[in-house]
Amino acid sequence: MNFEDIKKQEIAWKDLVAKSEMVNLRLLTEDAKKELERKIANFLIARKQAIASGNTSFIFRDKTYNTDEETINTVMTGWANPSSVSKHRALLAYRRAETNAWIYKTLLDKKRTSLFKTCKNLVLVGSGMYPYSMFDIQKKYKHIQQVGIEIDEKRASVGREIVTKSPAKDHIHIVTCDGYDYDYSYLLEDDLVFISCDVDNKNMMSKIMETCKAHMFICAPYEKTWLRALVQSIKVSKHHGVIFYAD
User: β-strands 215-218, 192-195: how paired?
Assistant: First the structure.
């Protein structure tokens, strides 16, 4: 495969990743709206039943509400606004995050998942709009603090919103930054750096190896031809506790 073919593969894969994220987020948004609509419908049914029984209050999902119009309007407005949809989408994104996603799968394939147990800090370069793989790790290893690096401001903004409104908000931080410019020096021997398969800056990879002691991995699917060609163009070495796994 020549250089032009490799570049085409690279562009096609990046486009696929971006489209997949957008589709997932659109579906999550639609489901969030539907679930809130069902919640409102069930709420109104419970109110109607209370009024029919001559009650001035009723219990809905373990909370007591008055049947007066003012209370109902306040509740309905709170549940139907875009902010509520966004918050519920984040909750669904967390709950439905793929199990054994790319970060975990990368070490699973290499039979190195024990590294997660001793890791305190994990960095994902190329976290995208929907950091589902980071959610997967947070559910499995709650002691790990994670940083997602995303160079595209809009993608980073979407990813940050999802994280900050999710149960993982205290464990994951999304930064808008070029992976090459990020300061990895705080990472220690037990820490981990993962590079998304749609990130291909070999200078950045070299910098990570030179400036921190963390283990560095390219996320599966590392079998992509264009990515393998990039990896093979880098001199792989072990120094200062850094191990670069590309096999």
Answer: parallel
Q: Both tokens of residue 87?
A: 């918050």
Average pLDDT over every residue of 89-114: 94
Establish if 83 belongs to a structural domain: no
Domains in the chain, number: 1
Structure tokens at 102: 């790319």
User: If we measure between CA atoms, which residue out of 145, 31, 142, 39 comes closest to residue 90?
Assistant: 31
Q: Which of 174, 222, 229 is nearest to 198 (CA)?
A: 222
Q: Is the pTM of this model over 0.85?
A: no
Residue length, the chain?
Answer: 247
Q: Is residue 201 part of a domain?
A: yes
Q: Exposed, middle or buried: residue 172 (CB in 10 Å: 0-12, 13-18, 19+)?
A: buried
CATH value at residue 157? 3.40.50.150
Percent of the chain residues past pLDDT 70, beyond the cut: 80
Which of helix, strand or coil describes residue 147? strand
**Which band of pLDDT confidence, cut at 50, 70 and 90, is reported for residue 69?**
very high
Range in 42-51, 71-80, 196-205, 222-231 with the lowest mean pLDDT: 222-231
Token readout for 7 is 């570049």
